[in-house]
Amino acid sequence: MADRPVLVVGSRNVKKRDELVELLAPHGVEVRTLADFTGLDHEVEEDGDTFEHNARKKASEYARATGHWTLADDSGLCVQALGGEPGVASAHYAGEHGADAANNALVLEKLADTPPERRSAHYVAVLALADPTGEVRAVERGECHGRITAAPRGENGFGYDPLFEVREYHRTFGQMGPAVKRAISHRSRATRAMLPRVVAMVTR
Question: Which of 39, 70, 161, 196 is the 20 to 30 A CA-CA neighbour of 20?
């Protein structure tokens, strides 16, 4: 049997990786993560001022480092009343990378005097696909719109999920099961848009 084509998910975020792996695995492509490459300690500095810049940079650098097609993403929360913050700084908004509780607390602190009708927000995810030479061949963007609640609700998800309420569902991502979130999330929407391009390019 011929080797299956390989796609590397360019992330060390376990929960983010698992979401992408589950979405991509059924399409006949062997999905690997950065952890599958022994000795790969390269970390891409996410120093761009847009989600697309960071996604492109990660996809390109990790593709060259692994020698495989690589799909990388950059994502975050944009709160209108905060001028679009946390934005590209979402993962380290309170200072320490990945400190979800501190990041959530800072958002709530900054919105303390903001009434419910002015707490609109949206999640953004940008996916970039690079070939083994590091050339970015496709970019897709997904968004999910909602609002920020007055306090965290729910234990599911990660990041700002306990604060992000999808109005139509009257529930936060933190209160939703993974199947519902997969159906409507920003990352899922970007991934669904990207899937045909991944299959067409990676498997040919």
Answer: 39
pLDDT tens digits, residue range 18-73? Answer: 766 776 777 778 888 888 888 888 888 889 999 999 999 999 999 999 999 999 99
Rounded mean pLDDT of 6-21? Answer: 76
How many domains does the chain contain in total? 1
∠ Cα 75 40 98 (to 5°):
35
Domain ranges, residue 67: 6-202
Catalytic hit among 74, 100, 131, 161: 74
Average of per-residue pLDDT across 106-126: 97
With tokens 């602190």, the residue in question is 109
Query: Which neighbouring-strand residues pair with 164?
Result: 148
- The amino acid that residue 25 corresponds to is A
Supply the CATH number for residue 88's domain.
Answer: 3.90.950.10
For residues 95 and 112, give the distance between their C-alpha atoms in angstroms, rounded to a whole number: 20
74 part of the active site:
yes
| Cα-based angle 50, 52, 54 (whole degrees, multiple of 5) | 75
**Is 1 part of a structural domain of the chain?**
no
